[in-house]
Write a structure and sequence with these properties.
The protein is of the alpha+beta class. The protein has eight helices and seven strands; from the N terminus they run H-E-E-E-E-H-H-E-E-H-H-H-E-H-H. It has a five-stranded mixed sheet with strand order 1-4-3-6-5. A hairpin with a 2-residue loop joins strand 5 and strand 6. The longest helix has 17 residues. The relative contact order is 0.16.
């Protein structure tokens, strides 16, 4: 790897069902640390030009957009999503994350300990945040933590109630996406939801014809 995790693979336990998740969480950071760039989960739909995003990552969870598209203090969720992020090579936040992984990794950890929990621990160190202090700091010269509605519209339990099996008109969908740079529906439950082809029934059917028309046209083939 050429990082602090050189030789780390010897600690991996392939009997743990979460190990592949851990590897994915770690390797995306290693690649960004070494080369820089943008990481997006495969199911992310990009809605706009992302070149203005630098050294940024988003909060976990779900919150409706604020009027000014900025973070409201009562929306804070202390877990940090690693599904969409941009960093320059050698970013110190990523270095701290790799240090945290080396320190906390155990072969039988849950799926989220290396991802969102590890990101939170690294951010707390970089920003010198007290996790028990309500007045959190969200920015530094090398890290900006964005509201969840910028990168992630949904987390697990919000799948059915907000974005599938609905009867929403265009104004409702546009309000959900007003501050979002990407459309990223996280959580395994989303794969159980139907893409109906009716733009009122689910958000993928609303955005599909314009954002990913080829994939949407061939929907029945998958």
């Amino acid at each position: 790897m050429g990082t602090i995790l050189e030789g780390f693979s010897s600690q991996l336990n392939y009997d743990n069902q979460n190990t592949l998740v851990h590897i994915s969480d770690i390797m995306r950071v290693v690649l960004l640390y070494k080369f820089g760039g943008f990481y997006l989960d495969f199911d992310t739909i990009v809605r706009t030009d992302l070149r203005k995003i630098k050294n940024s990552i988003g909060l976990e969870g779900y919150a409706k957009p604020t009027n000014d598209c900025k973070l409201a203090m009562d929306q804070f969720d202390d877990l940090i999503s690693n599904g969409v992020m941009q960093f320059e090579a050698g970013n110190p936040f990523l270095q701290l994350y790799l240090e945290e992984v080396k320190q906390i990794y155990r072969p039988n950890l849950g799926w989220f300990h290396i991802g969102p929990v590890g990101m939170r621990r690294a951010a707390n160190r970089l920003l010198k945040r007290d996790p028990n202090d309500a007045a959190h700091n969200y920015t530094s010269p090398t890290l900006t933590i964005l509201p969840s509605f910028v990168f992630t519209f949904m987390q697990r339990w919000k799948a059915a109630t907000n974005f599938f099996d609905t009867n929403n008109d265009a104004e409702v969908w546009e309000e959900y996406m007003r501050c979002g740079l990407v459309l990223h529906l996280t959580g395994w439950e989303s794969k159980q939801m139907d893409v109906t082809g009716d733009p009122r029934k689910d958000i993928y059917s609303y955005v599909g014809p314009t954002m990913c028309p080829l994939a949407f046209t061939h929907l029945k083939s998958f």
